Amino acid sequence: MNLDQTLTDELRTVATELRTPPPPPAAELVRLAERQRTRARLRAAGIAVVAAAAVVTALALGGQLGKPDAAPSPAPRPTDLPTALPTGDPPAIPFIENDRLHVAGRVQPGSWVAVQTREGSSVAYLDDANDLTQTIALFDDGDPLGRFTDVSTQVVVLSPHGARAAWVERDGSRWFLVVYDFQTHREQGRLAVDARTMGHVGVENEGWESLGSVDDTGTVRWGGVLQGHVWTPDGEPQDTAPDADAGTPSGRFPVDEGVVSLSPDGAWGAWTVDRTGDRPQGTTDTPDQYDVEVAAQRPGQPGTRIRLPLPRDSNASGIDWETTGTFLVTVFDDPTGVSWHYVRCSVVTRDCELAPTSEAP
Amino acid sequence: MSYEDYVAARWSALYRTAYLLTSSHADAEDLVQTTLVKAYLSWAKVSSAASPDAYVRRILTNAFLSGRRPLRVARERLVEQAPEIEAPETPYDERLVLWPHIASLPARQRAVVVLRYYEDLSEQQIADALGCSTGTVKSTASDALRSLRTRLGQQEGATS
């Protein structure tokens, strides 16, 4: 048998005799793509966005944060949920509503898509992203520190206590890994990186690398499926093995620690989970699955776990701690991602409330 | 060419390739949809590429390969051997001696076989599509052919 010719013949036979279904409407693919674009940015950044008219009174989020010492309890069924939450104070950290960025009571010029905050240090994303780059703005306790253009569309990472930020930036045809110091309000250092791996130029492939984390001294970790790296400004970059344990629970939490948002004092961690199990949100096989709730616990103490069920067909994106005891969750109850609300939950009072925004009806 | 025109013109061809890769109608449809969504997100680059088809083929093969990785290692580690694929949905056809075995090859070997023997791509074009070296393409193709010969031999031995 001529194996080469037989392979060609058989593959063409299978393909030719295949009955292909009609294509889906292109508009449907476009809609999926736009939703994916928005949601990917929101989820990856752990950021907070509020858009359009927030029908806060219709929000049906359960406010049953459990007692810290109680055993984990199964999530109530949606029919058990209250239909409304009490209304508390507006968000104390920067937020976006109707594409407008509110920082310390002031609306910033421009149209914005996202903002993330850690202990007073904020990074906001202007709605100007193209395939490769975008503009970001930094704030320190509400004070604007400047806008940075030509920043990679990769998510900017903030250090655990907000002392540093790191991002990838294009300068002409070259790309750099940049570490910013929120304490001195200056760039701490930059390192030239490969456009093909870190600039994400070209088609997505296994060689692409992404920012992982930056610590409060400026040490950055990044990598991909083939290689890991670590670099501290003023030092030389070092190659590391890819983190084979990524995505595996560390033991401190039942999910990958990379998806856990730690409180400023590190005493609590909160994350969003697929209600069908303990998989972190975003790891389900079906990207458009909206069966999500919020969980929190003390590190390494599963008995303190508390779960915040969301109503059916709602979703949560982004957990930002306002204080050591309260965090804001961005919740949308619209599968299209149009209607967003802020909810403040407290691990101290074990309760949740709406955090109204100035433009909410 | 507009995105809408491209979808209408290339859906069937992409579906056939996707089916040869996945051997499942449902998976093929998902794979082409995923591919076209990704293509839309990079449409400026796709439409201005020297060969939009080659660009989209890269998206499709990478989506196929990345989609078959176990979840736990999907983010950080390359797997040497992807899980074997289930038997094809196509009814048994005695004309098809190799197809059942192709369908059970590891994902990367299968991708190389489909790109080489169905799409008739060169080793360099396959390497471009998979984002690897031509040496890797050669060794992967060699492994696939050796595996197919072994399975054929076993099959003939069992039926004789």
Structure report:
The complex is a heterodimer of chains A (361) and B (160). With 361 residues, chain A is mainly beta. Chain A has a domain at 56-96 and 249-361: Lipocalin. Chain A is built from two helices and 23 strands. Chain A has a four-stranded antiparallel β-sheet, covered by helices on one side. A four-stranded antiparallel β-sheet of chain A has the order 8-9-10-11, with no helix packed on it. The radius of gyration of chain A is 22 Å and the shape is globular. Chain B has one domain (3-159): PhyR, sigma-like (SL) domain (Butyryl-CoA Dehydrogenase, subunit A, domain 3). Chains A and B meet through α1 and α2 of A and α1, α2, α4, α5 and α7 of B.
Topology:
The complex is a heterodimer of chains A (361) and B (160).
Chain A: H1 3-16, H2 26-45, E1 95-97, E2 100-103, E3 106-108, E4 112-118, E5 121-126, E6 133-140, E7 143-152, E8 157-158, E9 164-171, E10 174-181, E11 186-193, E12 210-214, E13 220-223, E14 228-231, E15 238-240, E16 261-262, E17 269-274, E18 292-298, E19 301-309, E20 315-321, E21 326-332, E22 340-346, E23 351-354
Antiparallel strand pairs in A: 1-2, 2-3, 4-5, 5-6, 6-7, 8-9, 9-10, 10-11, 12-13, 13-14, 14-15, 16-17, 17-18, 18-19, 20-21, 21-22, 22-23
Chain B: H1 3-22, H2 25-41, H3 43-48, H4 52-67, H5 71-74, H6 99-102, H7 107-118, H8 123-130, H9 134-159
